[in-house]
């Protein structure tokens, strides 16, 4: 143990002695680098001046009116979400935040195991509602959950849109 201490002290002394060596060549190199002229900086590019545009309606359509006429939901379509239906827990989350983690078949009914963003796993079957766009589950298989959403069509009505939640791999 004593020899290890002596060897350690001797090596530290040699290292300290080496630090006091002449380093004038390093100082000369640093001085040469500092003496070099700086590279020229490219000038800032010229910015084209803004040319304002004045809109004159003359024979053009008004810029903020839709091109297609709006239609009344009640007169053109019976399709609309049911506002009186009790919402299910997974209707609070967007579809892309839900994960299909498995399926279970029991008594001839296939259930989907869906994990919500809060980590809770829900057991769902066809007919349950899911997602923020009034999605209703149409079918469940090992390949995913098939559902139909009811989304606004942008003209005051609603359309059905198919969607899928794929299993996580």
Describe the structure.
- The chain is of the alpha+beta class and 169 residues long.
- It has a domain at 88-165: SH3 type barrels (Roll), CATH 2.30.30.830.
- It is 20% helix and 27% strand.
- The protein contains 3 helices and 7 strands; from the N terminus they run αααβββββββ.
- The protein has helices at residues 2-19, 24-35, 73-76, and strands spanning 99-106, 109-115, 121-124, 129-130, 135-141, 144-152, 158-165.
- Strand 1 (99-106) and strand 2 (109-115) form a beta hairpin.
List the helices and strands and how they pair.
Blueprint: H1 2-19, H2 24-35, H3 73-76, E1 99-106, E2 109-115, E3 121-124, E4 129-130, E5 135-141, E6 144-152, E7 158-165
Antiparallel strand pairs: 1-2, 2-3, 4-5, 5-6, 6-7
CATH topology of one domain: SH3 type barrels
Number of strands: 7
| Content of β-strand | 25-35%
Helix/strand/pairing category? alpha+beta
Provide the low-confidence segments as ranges: none
Q: Whole-number average pLDDT?
A: 85
Annotation field: number of helices: 3
Helix content: 10-25%
Oligomer: single chain
Distance between the termini: 58 Å
Principal-axes shape call = flat
Sequence of strands across the biggest β-sheet? 4-5-6-7
- Tell me the Rg in angstroms: 36 Å
Q: Sketch the topology as an H/E string, one letter per element.
A: HHHEEEEEEE
